[in-house]
Every structure is written in structure tokens, then in C-alpha cells.
Amino acid sequence: MDPKLEAVFQSVVARNPGEAEFHQAVREVFESLEPVIQRHPEYLESKMLERICEPERQIIFRVPWQDDRGDVQVNRGFRVEFNSALGPYKGGLRFHPSVYLGVIKFLGFEQIFKNSLTGLPIGGGKGGSDFDPRGKSESEVMRFCQSFMTELYRHLGEYTDVPAGDIGVGGREIGFMFGQYKRITNRYESGVLTGKGIAWGGSLVRTEATGYGTVVFANEMLKTRGETFDGKRVVVSGSGNVAIYAAEKVAQLGGTVVGFSDSGGFVVDEKGINLDLLKQIKEVERGRVSDYVERRPSAKLGNSGGSIWDVPVDVALPCATQNELNLGNAQTLIKNGVQVVAEGANMPTTPDAIHALRDAKVLFAPGKAANAGGVATSALEMQQNASRDSWDFEYTEERLTAIMENIHEVCYETAESYDAPGDYVVGANIAGFEKVAKAMQAFGLV
Ligand code: NDP
Ligand code: 2IT
Fold it and tell me: Which of 53, 99, 154, 177 has the highest local Cβ count within 10 Å?
């Protein structure tokens, strides 16, 4: 890294001790920015990078709730309102026991540039809690969500901050939180949360959007080499919202998804995933991947000690969580002839694994570009809410597809213009950054 950027990076590390994921996300962006500061030395003089790395506002709060036995539980809630240069803070809420400030800050930082790439008027933010929804009853989840929103509501608003889902937060949790926001404020402010149910202000295609968008992006990458998904073998990691709808779009484009996973293990199904069965187990029963194997004769549980990345494939789509695809996994994928790795999750590939993939000329798409379809469709949900309208599935999907094709083109062309042809990391980081930096410059010292 350029020494001037390295110095700023070291100051970010010193100011934010113990936040390894945040440091990793900042370093990855900074590594792309050397040619930008050469063209724009004013960014260094005006401390643009230091300002972008400092959240505009960070909120940490107590979330007390009562479990089904009547015992009191206390969790910690977060909302990091990172950057509002391009629009209201926008980004999901994650409920997972691994959540702490460093995770929320890495996600919020990524979100700034992702949202910029969508071309839509949304700033960057992220929030969540160390609450673990697994094994909790529906009433416990409801009481937790109500308590969480009882504190968070005062910071939100359709022009201020608009959360959505992420790991552990889907339509059910958004429903509990929207209901509580409405009770407290006495306003039917549809545009304050996205990922809502279709009957109460949600958008068609939002559920599918992240997974579908990731595959549309990967398909655009394949096209640059004269190929498509037709006939390709694919694995997704995870089996949540992003993974399921990535798999669905792969199947629609003629590919075969031969594996998926959850935190308990991975499944190989050489016949191709039965999506109806997987949705039933994951979306309705909230079960485990082992339940799938019990009901599907062609499926096998993967070796313990092995990983989903051992399965030979043409396309790999990490769709679970951060740092789930490491250097060893990348080397196995390369050995087995992988052509494309596109991140449906946020920062699932470790930095050394990304370098190995790029050195091996594997097409690699960073999450801030490839998984932007989710937040982009959230912005389309906000548009529908603002105009008190709702669009049909076909039209909304057309908009999503056009947005993903455009993000691909912007990343591709930005990489070319900075002498890094085919490097989507460089393209996404520079294109995402430049728009935010220009807006901040226009506002004076902010
Ligand atoms: P879900 O909660 O629906 O699913 C998460 C999946 O990943 C589950 O299968 C879960 O398994 C697995 N997983 C989570 N944490 C771990 C872990 N520590 N180790 C192994 N597996 C794990 O979340 P989403 O599908 O919404 O999110 C997945 C990824 O996509 C995240 O990185 C998220 O930030 C990103 N993303 C999501 C968007 C969205 O619109 N939802 C938009 C853009 C990005 P288990 O059930 O066993 O925990
Ligand atoms: O990481 C992400 O982009 C999301 N979890 C979706 C955010 C949103 O506001 O739709």
C-alpha cells in the first residue's frame, strides 16, 4: 500500500482497537485507492479518508427482554450511522451472537460504497445485536424485537435512517419491529424499514433480490469470457435468504447447484438442489441442512473436517458470512478449475484467498458490487412507499436486473480506466468511493 495510505490506515487501527473485521474492510478499500489519491491529492489534504473512516454517529444501547421462563435477558443493540453523503443511512440489522461493534462497523463501511454503486440515493449504515435467534420461540423473538425498536425508533425515519434485514433478521423480525415503530410514533411511515411483507408496504422481489442480483452479476462476468450459467456446476454456501435465491436464479439460468451449507455442515446433492424442499426446511420449519439429507435420497452430508469449497465447481457463491472462504479453500477451488467466485455475503473471502484467486485469473466479484441487489431493491421499496404505489414482480425484477448490469459495467469500466482490466475489486472500490468523496467535497467540511 502507498505509504501515505498506510499511515492513514495505521491511524484508523489505532483509533479503533480490537475491531479486526473493520480493519480488514478498510484495508481492502485503501489497497485500491492509490491511483485515486494520485489523481486527487486534495483528498489527502482534506483528510477525506480519515473522515470517511469515522462514522457520523454510533449508537449502542441496552436491550432488556424476558424469556419464556420469565427470566430477564440483556442484549446489546447497535446502529452505526456511517455516511449520509448520498442519502439517508441505509443498511441491514444483523442478529447473531458474534455481533460486536467491529462487525457492525465493517458492515457499515462496506455499505457506504455498495450503496453508492447502486446509483440510488442511499447513504450507508448498519446495526444489529448479539441476540441469538436460534432456539428462541416466536414470542421471545417478538419481545426482543419490540424492546430493540423501543430504543432504536428515536434514531430512525424515512429521511434519516432506514434499516432492513441481514443475518438472523428476515420478514418476521421486520414485521415485529415495524409494528412497534408504528405504535410508538403513531405514524404509518412505510419507508422507515425495508423488507416488509407484501401486504403492508413491502416490495415484490425484495426477498429474492440479493441472491438473484448476485447471480445476474456473475452472469455478466461470465459473458465477458463468452460464457453463461448454462450447464455450469455451482455451489452456494449458507442456506439462508441470500443462498436460497442465488440457487433459484442459477437454476433459472440453466446451471446446477450441487451443494449448500449451514453452520452445522454442508450437503452435496449431485442431482441439483430441490429448492422446494430446502425452502420448506429453512423458511418454514427453520430446520437444519441435515433435515434435507434425511428427506432427499440423492443428497449426502459432506465429510466432517471438509468444506463446501472442496466440491469441484465452475462457479462458487459464498453466501453465508465473513471470512468463510480462506486461502486453502481458494487453492482447492483453483485446482478444481473454478472460473468465477462472486460474493453474495459481505466479506466472505479472506484477503489472501482473494489474492490467490486474482493471481490465478479467476473472475472475482467483491460483495459490495455482487450483493448490492438487496439494498438496491430496498431503495426500490422506498420509492414505492414514497409514491404510495406497488409495482408488479416482472417490472421490479427488470429494474433489479438493469441495476446489476449497470453496476457490472461501472466496475468493469472503472477498472479499465485505472489500468486494472478485469479487476472488479479495484473497479468497485474506486467507483464506489469517488461518488461519496465528490458529494462530501461539495458539502464543505463535513
Ligand atoms: P440468513 O440469516 O438468512 O442466513 C445466513 C446463512 O449463513 C445461514 O445458512 C447460516 O447458518 C449461515 N451462517 C451464518 N453465520 C454463520 C457462521 N458464523 N458460520 C457458518 N455459517 C453461518 O442471512 P442472509 O442470507 O440474509 O445473509 C447472508 C450473508 O449475505 C451475510 O453476509 C449478509 O451480510 C449478506 N447480505 C445479505 C443481504 C440481504 O438482503 N439479506 C444483502 C447483502 C448481503 P446457520 O443457520 O446455521 O447459522
Ligand atoms: O448487506 C446488505 O446490503 C443488506 N443486508 C441489505 C441492506 C438493506 O438495507 O436492504
Answer: 177
Residue 408 CB partners (closer than 8 Å, separation 6+): 217, 220, 221, 369
pLDDT tens readout for residues 6-61 = 999 999 999 999 999 999 999 999 999 999 999 999 999 999 999 999 999 999 99
Residue 178 predicted with pLDDT over 90: yes
Name the pairing type of β-strands 340-342 and 315-317. parallel
The pTM score is 0.98
Over the stretch 137-172, which tens digit does the pLDDT of each residue have?
999 999 999 999 999 999 999 999 999 999 999 999
The residue type of 15 is: R
**Residues, the chain:** 446
- Distance between CA atoms of 204 and 393, rounded to whole angstroms? 5
Nearest CA to ligand 1 atom 42: 374
Of 104, 167, 210, best ligand 2 pocket probe by most atoms within 8 Å of the beta carbon: 210
Phi, psi of 73 (to 5 degrees): -120, 145
Chain position carrying cell 480488514:
24
Which one of the ligands is nearest to 307 CA? 1
Catalytic (active site) residue 182: no
Give the full edge-to-edge strand order of the sheet including 265-269.
299-301, 265-269, 256-262, 233-236, 315-317, 340-342, 363-365
* Residue 166: closest CA among 89, 92, 72: 92
Q: Find how far residue 253's CA is from the centre of its chain.
A: 22
Three-class DSSP labels, 79-119:
EEEEECCCCCEEEEEEECCCCCHHHHHHHHHHHHHHHHHCC
Residue corresponding to grid cell 423458511: 283
**How many other CB atoms are found less than 10 A from the CB of residue 416?**
14
**CA dihedral defined by 153, 158, 160, 163, rounded to 10 degrees?**
60
Which of 90, 105, 126, 282 is the catalytic position?
Answer: 126
Distances (CA, A) of 203 to 123, 167, 194: 20, 19, 8
